[in-house]
């Protein structure tokens, strides 16, 4: 089953009808903020993860 342009258009049209034009920008802003926070947390965990055989240096 493929999800084409027509199905995407119908889905967006239904969401627009349900939420209305005033709530959509806020919804997209919240979605963008959530994605940004998720990617920041994911990259932070990746940086904190130690590679095998390496030790963190302790500052005096």
Automatic annotation (TrEMBL):
GO BP: protein transport
Principal place of residence: membrane
Gene3D superfamilies tied to this protein: 1.20.5.3310
Record's subcellular location: Membrane
Membrane topology of the entry: Single-pass membrane protein
GO CC field: membrane
Pfam families with a match to the protein in the record: TatA_B_E (PF02416)
Keywords: Membrane, Protein transport, Translocation, Transmembrane, Transmembrane helix, Transport
Domain of life: Bacteria
Protein name: Sec-independent translocation protein mttA/Hcf106
